[in-house]
Amino acid sequence: MVNTGSLAETAQQTGFARLVARLALTHSEKFTNAQLTSLWQQGENEQRPQPPARVSYDTTLYSLSLPNGRPDLVKEALKWMVNTAGQLSITPAAVQQALAAADPVATVPDNPRNSWWHYRLKGSLLLAHSPDTPTKNLRWMPNNCSISTSNGTPQTP
């Protein structure tokens, strides 16, 4: 679990919590696209489908459920986790690839734009920080940057 979500975003960063989760699931320097797709498909359970990542107002939760008796998958999952947590490099090409791929990220609540949810949040700061808001402002991005593991803010090398 990452202790950041859409509430940590500024107006210029709207949608970044979801974008970083998408990047983590669809881009890796140590895995090919096919390897990543295969890893996430192994965790899918048709009886209890669960998305590999969920973004909420204050947290981002990654979840991978692997079948029993497959230690090779556990090894691959741990390699992905180490690579993503410490070496996630974000380039314009990686962002475009993540935005073009199918979105595996879910939100909590499932539908933050629901009228009942809006009624419950009337007058709340949460209305301006919906976890399902897409990224609109990518002008900030330099040619190459990476995510700092200490506080989660983008930093240029």
Structure description:
The protein is an alpha+beta fold and 157 residues long. The chain has a single domain (6-155), classed as Metalloenzyme, LuxS/M16 peptidase-like (Cytochrome Bc1 Complex, Chain A, domain 1). The chain is 34% helix and 10% strand. It contains 5 helices and 6 strands, in the order H-H-E-E-H-E-H-E-H-E-E. It has a 3-stranded mixed β-sheet with strand order 2-1-4, with helices on one face. It has a 3-stranded antiparallel β-sheet with strand order 3-5-6. Strand 1 (53-55) and strand 2 form a beta hairpin. Helix 1 (16-26) crosses helix 4 (92-100). The longest helix has 17 residues, at 71-87. The radius of gyration is 16 Å and the shape is globular.
